[in-house]
Fold this protein.
Amino acid sequence: MLLEETIHVHAGGRARGYPIRVRSGIRRALPQMIPAHARAHRYAVIADEAVAELYGREVADGLRREGKEAHLFTFPPGEASKSRGQWQALTDAMLEAGFGRDSAVVAVGGGVTGDLAGFVAATFMRGIPLVMVPTSLVAMIDSSVGGKVGVDVPHGKNLVGAFHPPRLVVVDPEVAVTLPRAERAQGLAEAVKHGAILDPVYLADLEDDIPCVMNGEVRATARVVVRSIEIKADIVSKDERESGLRQVLNFGHTLGHALEAASGYTVPHGSCVALGMVLEARLGERLGVTEPGTADLLARLVRLLELSLSLPPGLDPEEVLAFTRSDKKGRAGRPRYVLLAAPGRVAGKGEEWAREVPEETVLEVLREAAF
Amino acid sequence: MLLEETIHVHAGGRARGYPIRVRSGIRRALPQMIPAHARAHRYAVIADEAVAELYGREVADGLRREGKEAHLFTFPPGEASKSRGQWQALTDAMLEAGFGRDSAVVAVGGGVTGDLAGFVAATFMRGIPLVMVPTSLVAMIDSSVGGKVGVDVPHGKNLVGAFHPPRLVVVDPEVAVTLPRAERAQGLAEAVKHGAILDPVYLADLEDDIPCVMNGEVRATARVVVRSIEIKADIVSKDERESGLRQVLNFGHTLGHALEAASGYTVPHGSCVALGMVLEARLGERLGVTEPGTADLLARLVRLLELSLSLPPGLDPEEVLAFTRSDKKGRAGRPRYVLLAAPGRVAGKGEEWAREVPEETVLEVLREAAF
């Protein structure tokens, strides 16, 4: 991909939208792009210790070469860092280094970094500008679009956070192909979701593109990243605060989150969502909502991702069902499901994109997938 | 005051404004008003342990009598509770009690409670509706208008927080007169500020009204509360995110915050702002910006509040000056001051309401007020 694609996220009811710029090699232009979109006196480049060495230091050094004051703040890699403790430590480190309200945060990393550094930016002196530089495929495709930031707490994931749209998102597909193969599958699970809910053509194209992305081809990666961002940006632009249409992005996630929680977060998010989509498609077929054959089509794509179609070993279907009841999207403790009408088309009308379903049917579907 | 006054805060660039309703005895209508403005499945009434007994329990019980699910959450009284630790404890208590995203927070109390409970609401599952029921005069007049919420951190006050406008603010002036006399002076200091920056008539009226409010007269209290809220709501409506006009509310606060910090937060905020206004008026007079006699007029009002016109004993002017340099409103570590042109009129034009001033002049003014 030689050309640069810019996708605009429009702000639903808010003052400010933001561009997402995608181009191979674009990371080298960051030192000029960041100050142009987020003017600040000081820049806090936040990355985990691993990504800091690969890309974070490069961004901070580049900003300094442009005459900007920039400081690199790091934290230990891993989901455990997405915590209130780490949020506090980063905030205090910035204050200690003299950062004031005329500062900006540059988040360089995967989903954990975007969420954590984004929450620091959202709450630092009541909010300072944020630039996101996602480095993992899942962060590029999913978590850097939409303005959601936050941390995990003992009661569950993402239960504390804010909506804090970035000023700019910069995506360099070259960076994603440096990731391990298994990491790429995690991001592609969200790409499959985007096709499944809104774009039958994209869903069909993914059958060809998934093997190329898994093999680290930059052009296919760029193609998938751009199309997925377009779909998500379109939804988010229409519904920034998750009251209506944005619910469709939760396809596969009611069971996905329950699987993730039931596994004690030992199974990665993308793997859980991949299986969750197949199971929720089966659920829809059984309820007469989803066109027969949809679940099999999704299962074929999940196999291309080299991910499992069975519940994690040792997981009890009843236990997974219990975890659906504490889902954040539920009303009054009753879980809701986004169902497909057909591959590439979500079922629902008006503002009701998620519905309650009989628990017995959910249990049947889970039992069939038990290891 | 028999009539009810409703002041509307309009949202600058945001989707949602909110009403502030003021009436003696209005607290008894809260169980009907809260669900009408903030629909939710569960209500978290948050109050400190002292206010919980006086008013918080009454609100929670009233909501339950209306058939709503309501739960009272308390914390120890005092500024020390405005902390990340207490924010975390309240959030976790709500999660433990089964609160989900279909919940709302009702903050019943003074400034600490509004800021702390407001920050819980701002960050709980990325933000849930907030209703504010200020019970202290300073909270009624000042901190419940404007949508600022947050907590203190070791590096300073209000350094972590968010903008999270409430759905509704309910002010019952009867409640304010139950406060100790010294507490009322704290609120009136902000009222003097409102007159000083924008309303010469109000400033003149305060010479008569201050003694009545200090003596606990409900009608005078209601009059002052309504006029101050009108002024602040007008400013906030025009500039919700503090980029322009809202800066004028910082009159008296650059030196006020420095005095507060230099005293190790042993001198209350209102007392520091009262002295800060007199000193910043002297500063303005000395720089030829402020009409001569302005500082003396403000000093007369501060005397009516029974507050000190000297630096707290033992405080070194140089030390106070040093604290101005870490002011949050500074750019690049250089403090900025809002100066008056005359009583009831702020100096400045366009978007530049705050300016840098020579440090020597600040030091002269501080030295003259040294104990």
